[in-house]
Amino acid sequence: MIKICFICLGNICRSPMAEFMMKNTLSKMGLENEYRITSRGTSLEEYGHDLYPPAKEKLEEMHIPYEKHFANKVSMQDYLENDLFLCMDENNIQSMKRLFPKDSGKIVKFLERDVADPWYTGDFSRTYQDLEEGIQNWIDNLQTKRNK
């Protein structure tokens, strides 16, 4: 089983959206038992909060199922339990490398470009498109590696 954790700042918009979108895509592909997908933030500022309402609205609009979410900060236990941390932007990468300075290559950027934070931009459609693109690319790449 491949264990992936999506990372953003507060864990109420980008990373949980990516978590639910990836779970949905994997389920549709019949691969849900081959992966464990979670999400975390690099800060505690949204700790315990649910998915941000406009993020829920975007997922509902796109028919992506989601469940009650409690924002949480990434921990050493998360680091030890996961194979891959997909970070939404360069600031997330830097924060993760400060938290886990002896990273063994688990911390990577989700896309080559930053996924803009819709908390600040208000553009949940653009964020959804970026997440959709990245998720499909990651699944394709991981499945190709698994099948070699």
SSE topology sketch:
Layout: E1 2-8, H1 14-28, E2 35-41, H2 53-61, H3 76-81, E3 84-87, H4 90-99, E4 107-109, H5 118-121, H6 124-146
Parallel strand pairs: 1-2, 1-3, 3-4
Major sheet: 4 strands, parallel
**Nearest-integer average pLDDT:** 96
CATH topology, by name, is: Rossmann fold
Low-confidence stretches: none
Question: How is this structure best described in words?
Answer:
The protein is α/β, with parallel strands linked by helices and 148 residues long. The protein has one domain: Response regulator (Rossmann fold). 45% of the residues lie in helices and 14% in strands. The chain has 6 helices and 4 strands, in the order βαβααβαβαα. It has a 4-stranded parallel β-sheet with strand order 2-1-3-4, with helices on both faces. Helix 1 links the parallel strand 1 and strand 2. Helix 1 crosses helix 6. The longest helix is centred in the C-terminal third of the chain and has 23 residues.
Features:
alpha/beta, Rossmann fold, 4 strands, globular, 6 helices, 14% strand, four-stranded parallel sheet, 148 residues, single chain
Could you provide a short overview of the structure?
By secondary structure, the protein is an alpha/beta fold. The protein has six helices and four strands.
